Amino acid sequence: MPLNLPVIYGSVRTERQGIVLARHVAEALRKRGHDAPLIDPMERRLPLLDRMYKEYKGDAPPVLQELADLYKAADGFVIVSGEYNNGIPPALKNLLDHFLEEYFWRPSAIVSYSAGGFGGVRAAMQLRMTLSELGTPSIPTVFAVPNVSSAFDASGAPTDEKFGKRFDRFAGELEWYAEALKARRAEGVPY
């Protein structure tokens, strides 16, 4: 069953290396038959959070309205986050915090990365808390990508031969949760 799974990326650094990973994840989900638009803060240019989408009461800026509509139609979310000083990138936190109810009752999946060998897992643990508070609890598995600068070749293909198998298992877990929660949302939500 095709799912709508926006891929939310969080870096706005000039020489960001995780964008290759985010593009690969979105494309891999599309190859599995899903709609997986890439939400890139460099393209969306959201202002620093002053008011949440819901606080505009029907008069939100077009970029927020577009994202709200996309999120309301989503079956789940994939969050691609680097690790900045043991935490998540500020652009990602800003991008996520503009919304709340739009995430409710949909699972999220965390793809983390770092320049070092830990693959951004410290940021992933902080991100779990944030996503849970937003109403989009993360699936148990984190897809961690260490040494992101050498994780892909010049064409954007993974250099690790086990990458595809690991990703398929991760994506299968997200699909299971997204399909289960989609079915339950169709029956109604607790409140």
Automatic annotation (TrEMBL):
Cross-referenced InterPro entries: Flavoprotein-like_sf, FMN_Rdtase-like_dom, NAD(P)H-dep_reductase
Pfam family, one: FMN_red
Domain of life per record: Bacteria
GO molecular function: FMN binding; oxidoreductase activity
CC terms in the record's Gene Ontology section: cytosol
Domain annotation NADPH-dependent FMN reductase-like: ranges: 7-147
SUPFAM superfamilies hit by this protein: Flavoproteins
Name listed for the protein in its UniProt record: NADPH-dependent FMN reductase-like domain-containing protein
Native source organism of the sequence: Hansschlegelia plantiphila
